[in-house]
Specification:
Layout: H1 22-36, H2 40-46, E1 53-61, E2 66-68, H3 70-78, E3 92-104, E4 107-118, E5 124-136, E6 142-149, H4 152-161, H5 167-189, H6 200-209, H7 224-234, H8 238-241, E7 263-264, E8 286-287
Parallel strand pairs: 1-6
Antiparallel strand pairs: 1-2, 3-4, 4-5, 5-6, 7-8
C-alpha cells in the first residue's frame, strides 16, 4: 500500500472555510483528546471509520509519516495507541492536559501534555508533550492536522534504559523483545499468501541481523522500529499490514532520496479582519512532497 504526501494537493481542501470560533475550537480540541486516550481509543479504532475525521482527512505525524483518508487515520491515530497484546513502543495515552492553546476561525494550535503508560517497558509512566495544528470543517470533523511529539529521542532512550543494565545491554534487550513480538505476530496472523518469512527463525534473524533498529524519527523508514509500529495493525488487516513487517516493508522503493515536484494550494490560510475580509489564500503554503512506502528503504527528509 503506497501512501504519498503528494496527495496533500487534493482539490477538496479548497472549499468554504468554517467559522467556528474560539470556544467551539476549544471544545473540539478536548473532544479529540477525550476520544484518543485509553480506553476510549479502542471504541474509535473498532469503528474502522471514525466520524471525528472528514472523508478526505490529511494528516502528518512528525516521527512517522503522512496519513490520507478516514480509514487509515482511524487505524493509526486510534488503533496504534490502544492496549495490545503485542509489544508497543508508542505506549497508551492515559490522561491529558492542554497547556497552551490558540485558535481562530477553523484552526487550532495546541500544546498538550499527555501521560503515557508503556506496558512493554516495565509499565513505566512518562509525560509526553505533543504539539498539534488542526483544522475542522462545518460538520466539526478534522480535515487536516500536523502533529509533533517533542523530545521523542529522549523518550525512547529513557524507555530502553528502563530495561536495566548498561546502555548496550538495554539496547540488546529492546531488539530481542521487539523482534520476538513481531515474529510471534507474523506466525499467528500472516498465513498463506500473507506470509513474509519462511519460518519464525528466519523472521528473527532478519529483524535482528539485517535491519537497523532506527531512531525515534525513523518510525516510517526501513527500520525495526517501523515494523514494530505496524505490527500492532497486523491482526486487524493482515492482507494489508503483513507486508509492512516483512523484509520489503511493503513496497519497492529504492535506497535513494527521491522528491516529487512541489505542489501549491495545499494548506488553507485566511486573512483575519472583518468577516468579509476572510478569504482563501491557497498559494500561501508550499509543500515538498515525499513519495514513500511504508517501512520502505526510502529516506525521509
Amino acid at each position: 500500500m503506497r501512501i504519498s504526501a503528494c496527495l496533500l494537493a487534493l482539490p477538496g481542501l479548497l472549499g468554504v472555510i468554517a467559522d467556528l470560533g474560539y470556544d467551539e475550537l476549544w471544545r473540539l480540541q478536548h473532544e479529540f483528546y477525550g476520544r484518543w486516550i485509553t480506553p476510549n481509543n479502542a471504541k474509535e479504532a473498532e469503528s474502522i471509520n471514525s466520524t471525528i475525521f472528514s472523508d478526505n482527512i490529511l494528516g502528518r505525524v512528525s516521527d512517522t509519516r503522512t496519513f490520507v483518508g478516514r480509514e487509515l487515520n482511524t487505524e493509526y491515530i486510534f488503533g496504534l495507541f490502544m492496549p495490545s497484546e503485542s509489544l508497543s513502543i508508542v505506549g497508551n495515552p492515559m490522561e491529558y492536559e492542554v497547556i497552551q492553546f490558540a485558535a481562530v476561525q477553523n484552526i487550532a494550535s495546541a500544546t498538550t501534555r499527555v501521560n503515557f503508560t508503556f506496558p512493554a517497558f516495565n509499565n513505566i509512566s512518562l509525560p509526553v508533550v505533543i504539539n498539534t495544528w488542526m483544522t475542522w470543517n462545518s460538520a466539526r470533523q478534522i480535515t487536516q492536522y500536523d502533529v509533533v511529539f517533542k523530545w521523542s529521542g529522549n523518550l525512547f532512550q529513557t524507555l530502553i534504559l528502563s530495561l536495566g543494565g548498561s546502555a548496550e545491554e538495554a539496547g540488546s534487550k529492546t531488539v530481542h523483545k521487539i523482534a520476538t513480538s513481531i515474529c510471534n505476530s507474523h506466525t499467528r496472523y500472516c498465513k498463506g499468501t500473507n506470509a513474509q518469512y519462511d519460518s519464525w527463525e528466519g523472521c528473527y534473524g532478519f529483524l535482528t541481523k539485517k535491519l537497523r533498529v532506527g531512531q525515534s524519527f525513523e518510525l516510517g523508514e526501513n527500520t525495526l522500529m517501523c515494523r514494530s509500529v505496524h505490527e500492532l495493525m497486523v491482526k486487524y488487516r493482515p492482507e494489508i499490514h503483513c507486508s509492512h513487517i516483512g523484509p520489503t516493508g511493503g513496497g519497492n522503493a529504492t535506497t535513494r532520496l527521491h522528491m516529487s515536484r512541489k505542489w501549491r494550494n495545499v494548506l488553507i490560510r485566511t486573512r483575519h479582519g472583518s468577516p468579509g475580509d476572510r478569504r482563501l489564500a491557497g498559494r500561501a503554503w508550499q509543500v515538498d512532497c515525499i513519495c514513500m512506502t511504508f517501512c520502505s528503504p526510502a529516506i525521509a527528509l
